[in-house]
Amino acid sequence: MASILIVDDDQLLAENMRAAFQAVGHTCVMAETGEQAFQVLKHDPVDLMILDIMLAGMSGFEICRRVHADPSLYALPIMMVSAMDSEEEMRHGFAQGADDYVTKPFRLEALLGRVESLLASSKAPMIDPMTSLPGHRFIRLELQKAINLHSEFALAYIEVQRLGEYVRLAGADERVKIVRSLSQIIQEQGKVLQDPAFRAGHMGGGHFVCIMSRASARTFGESVENAWRLSLASPSGGVRPKSTSQSVPLELLVCLTPSKGGGSQSVAEYFEILSHLRDKAIHAKQTGLYYDQRG
Fold first, then answer.
1. CB 187 within 8 A of CB 198
2. Whole-angstrom Cα distance, residue 22 to residue 108?
3. Are 60 and 36 in contact (CB under 8 A)?
4. CATH code of 118's domain
5. Helix (H) or strand (E) holding 20
6. Structural domain count, the chain
7. Which of 45, 194, 211, 266 is most exposed, with minimal Cβ within 10 Å?
8. Backbone angles phi, psi at 276, to 5 degrees
9. Exposed/middle/buried for 144, CB within 10 Å: 0-12, 13-18, 19+?
10. Category of 195 on φ-ψ map: left (φ > 0), alpha (ψ -120 to 50) or beta
11. pLDDT tens digit string along 186-199?
12. For the chain, what is the mean pLDDT?
């Protein structure tokens, strides 16, 4: 069962939520302000925060930003609950790092279902056993932290082109070999950077996303591409294709985009930018490095 922090100055609603959660075995801690919430978080680790937006002193948006900028708290799942139900307000909530957003009034049964779903997803393993790299949730959390800290950073999207076609000819075992080899290249080239901001994550299949300082982006992209080509060409290379599948070239696509500054972009918007860059590169039939020219 989970420990849940409820931050809401509507005492009747907060008590009703606590009763509903306790009825299914969860424990609850209550706070009416941001200051009280952070006092709780200093001393009592919790598994989930349910956060109202309209609070005295510090808004729920500010609380959410501060949580995701704190290295000791940034992985805490946050569900915002608010009477502010416009699309703009909801989008703003997600941009601050909320994992879910529920509008008031709501049915407690429906809220409980959303809470259970969020708790389950937050407990999923952070590390992908195939690549030994963190997965999608880790990268989203790290990106949210960089946004909330107004850091200067760059994102790299890395994909093995035509991997599915190659695996259909070479066999399913080859997928694991290729993905692990690319993961090793990414990790090795990340270490060479000696960039404290560098983070790498496996998004599934032959897809990876990395975060780094802007100054490291071009060097990293070029080094990953060069290492990939050398591995393909070497007789003992980790990603050398089977001779039966030489007709399917395993090209690498590396899309690079810088941060837009001021924390103005959300995590979702950055992923949309990467998706847009990927689509443009594929449409242009380009592999290798593909830069976001706006940066």
1. no
2. 12
3. no
4. 3.40.50.2300
5. helix 11-23
6. 2
7. 194
8. -65, -45
9. buried
10. beta
11. 999 999 999 999 99
12. 89
